[in-house]
Amino acid sequence: MSADGSRTAARTAPNSAEAADEHAPTPPAPAPSSSGTPRRRGRPRIDLRRLGLAALLGSTSRGRLPDAIGHVADAHRAHHPEADLEPLRRAYLLAESSHRGQMRKSGEPYITHPLAVTLILAELGAETTTLTASLLHDTVEDTEVTLEQVRREFGDEVCFIVDGVTKLEKVDYGAAAEPETFRKMLVATGNDVRVMSIKLADRLHNMRTLGVMRPEKQARIAKVTRDVLIPLAERLGVQALKSELEDLVFAILHPEEYDKTRTLIAENAAAGDPLGEFAEEFRTVLREADIAAEVHIRPRHFVSVHRSRIKRGELRGADFGRLLVLVNEDADCYGVLGELHTCFTPVISEFKDFIATPKFNLYQSLHTAVARRDGEVAEVLIRTHQMHKVAEAGVVALGNPYDAGTDEDGAEGERVDPTRPGWLSRLLDWQRSAPDPDTFWSSLREELAQDREITVYRAGGGTLNLPAGASCVDAAYAQYGEEAHACIGARVNGRLVTLSTVLRDGDTVHVLLAPPETASGPDAEWLDHTRTPAARIAIGRWLSSHPEGPVVAAAEPRPQLTVAGMRPGAANAVVDLPNATVRLAGCCTPVPPDVVTGFTVRGGAVTVHRVECPAVQRMSASGRVPVAVHWAEPDEGAECRVTLIAESFGRPHLLADLTEAIALEGAAIISATVEPPVEGRVRHSYTLQLPDAAQLPGLMRAMRKVPGVYDVGRGKEPAAATS
């Protein structure tokens, strides 16, 4: 529908949220020119004039396939020889009749656009349902055809896909139409990825025919394509569409660099073909090794050449392309790798195994580079034919992953997408928390800017998929949602770390939460450590609703100091000096059954220390002679004194909770020190009087159970008394 809501028979492509008139002649394409630039291999361009003529002549007799979709049928049958073409025939007849009289800006009948989009998908191997929906993808948006009519004539699946790609009306949504349209498409993609497949093919054809648009409008559409559509094509693994979209955007947004790159490619084509020589040598090596393989030259597309030039500086002949080796079985990939590394000099730093560890967009291949004796280096891709199909077409090549089938009892199975990647699940989760179109649009671009994904393991089982560079804060919100506001720390691979710690692929993460009654909420600094929109949106919403920031309760009064009237006695420590006065050292507060030693001090008394006490090391280093000490059998109820160090995350009421835990175990606090927090962590030192040394293990367990406390150990330094 146009901006004013009218529907006329003769009109250009109607206004829309994205680009009402984005259907226009092609800009300078990154294809060869008459100057000698070699034509980049790719799908053939359809003849719009021939299609337009076929469309204007109308449909053929009943039952025959219309001439205008003959090329689509041929491409479809090449991938699906047994496909039923009747749905395509009926879809074309409905699309042609409903679009009849509509013209594109470039002058062709409008029906040429859905035909071109459908051809792109057919050549990628899309199944019949996708092609049927592709032919109809603009009918509900631009004609009088309704979704109910599509459902009645083509079924629920085609109706769902057509609805998913139908744009929202700008007259209804205003400036929010474009982001809300993408939100609608992405939500639909979460249920059926074929929605986004059609959108990508639709954008590719529109970019091919964008030349008659005003330069500023070309630039706006190209930027959205760069920021949103190209990353989506990358994540869905549709490299064939992604590469061409990149080149078309490159030509519009960076025309000078594009022209330089075109010139470089043309000059290289005239200088010789080192990759052709490499290819012949590869074929000979593999033939002699009795490995059935095809060797192809894969010219780099324009953006790839441009990036290589920036990275490497001056490019050599073999830098303008790569060699692709296709085999039948996975094992043959490694066989080819072994032969090439044996007969040529491998560049070890260039080797990557994406078969054993596929990329998050389904991509699988072996990457390597080998050098000849003359120093020429060629990059090589090794993959099976099926891997190549998926590498080029991504999810489009997987057929229909949504056919649930039936279970053992004949009941219809659950409709599950086994190919849904982690990034899409994350996106579907956080978009629900971003009602504001601007927030959604900016967050979507940030999410798609992440070019790699990692998998981390949860301590309690299961995995989390996160963008590379994600921190413990991201993991907390990915696992717990808004409950992560209570996060007070994390352990990574069993070790305590700060919340800002960046996670690596394969890490095990244990997020630590404070009890709800003591949680203080997220800190604004957490935003500096987030990479996921879900975490950023949740933290931002909490901070907006709590402008005062995290509420930290006033510090609890320190426990009242109880000072013993004399130094700790000897308890049941026995020394080898007759009649010597024995005292337990206050620096390490030894208790049975600690391993201890003693040193004589002024006045003839012997001070007993734990052997690992730093004071023992200092006195031994100064030449002091130790005195043997052992523990006698303890008397019933003999008291002892001990220093404990509690490591914890800072939170309100922590000191009170620790004091209560100590009191419940029957220990008296002689002195206590609480050091200032460092990175959210607090160190407590307690000197305690226990009725019996046997109570020490139970006391330490009770202190560790206090929420926020992650470690309790014996102290080795004196605990200063609180004031």
Brief summary:
By secondary structure, the chain is α+β, with helices and mostly antiparallel strands. It is built from 25 helices and 21 strands. The strands form five sheets. Strands 1, 2, 3, 4, 5 and 6 form a six-stranded mixed beta sheet that branches.
Question: Explain this structure to me?
Answer:
- The protein is 39% helix and 15% strand.
- The termini are far apart.
- The protein is elongated.
- By secondary structure, the chain is of the alpha+beta class.
- Strands 1, 2, 3, 4, 5 and 6 form a 6-stranded mixed beta sheet that branches. The protein has a 5-stranded mixed beta sheet with strand order 8-7-11-9-10. A 4-stranded mixed beta sheet has the order 13-15-14-16, with helices on one face.
